[in-house]
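B., you asked whether I could sanity-check this one before it goes into the benchmark set. Here's the sequence:
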Amino acid sequence: MRAVSFVAASVLAGITFQSIASERERDAAPYFEPGGAVRFNYGWLDYAPTSGLQVELLRADLDAGAGPFSFSAQYRWYDGFHAVHHAYAGWQFSDQARLKAGIQQVPFGLLPTVSQSFWFGSGYYLGIEDDYDPGLVLSYTRGDTTWHAGWFSGDEYGSGARHDRYSFDVAQTDALPYREQQRLHARVEQTRTWAGGQLLLGASVFAGKVQNTQTRRRHGHHGGALHAQWKRNGWTAQLQWARYRYDIPGDRIALSAFQAPFETAAQADVPSANVAYSFAAKGRLDDLTCYNNLSMTRPTGHRTGARDSWQNVTGCSLQKGIMTTYVDWIAGRDMWFAGGDGIGINDGGPSQWHSRFNLNIGLYF
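And here's what the prediction gave me:
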């Protein structure tokens, strides 16, 4: 019923906003813009064999539109699997309002990401940063405030048993047989001037369900975040505190992406603190941005078998024409993809830091 109500409200809003659509939107010239990318990656790891320079990604993009209507899609090929990134249609009702339907970025936390690095922050691996799922999102801007309201049906493939995907979702495993179901999202962000720069202040919440695929029983899944971003003269500072919770029996749930399911704490706080500086055009470069992204996952509630996880990424991104290169040093403690067994869990092994050097060179067409 909630989903039906949201769709009905979106349609009614669309009729209202369509009636005041501007001449610019009705007369906008059609466009058709195919694109793509190829990326190469090199990684040195202190906890596993070093991976030599190899093709990491092939990507195909398409952006098209006419008048108030638009379409965007991206498909990716990785080593050993391929997956959709996004595919949605958009309808610009007016200069202030837009409806998007399809596989799209979930409006939660700082957008587009709570990070500047190629490696993202801890939230990405927990499914609360740069997550793409199928649904409807209505965005509306009035003055200095933007609202998002969204409904999502589940994960992009409708099955937790598929582990080869781009963004992280609840995984179905033998020990933890769950999958995502419907979620409602709400987000608000306000722009202000502070200390000579632009300050973004916002809050995000969501509520939904996960289902045990064996018992068919549903359990609550909800979360929230407070977020802020400040920019001035090339500097960017980001702060975010997020909390998520799966109301399932036990203290763990499984997540997956990139063919790699792993376990994580069923409820945790996820604070992030990032700083970056853009040198803009520097010598022969179009842009040089250096950053430090720090995030952690701190399990809450019953903490048996739990342990805090940390991730810190220090690096720079270099851009020249169609080429963008990331040079990152990733340090993680009890962190998945940085030598850990999972995120926020304790399987009895020693708690220690691991690190890796990562070089990613991308050509974007």
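One thing to flag: Residues 110 and 227 are 6 Å apart (CA to CA). Otherwise nothing jumped out at me.
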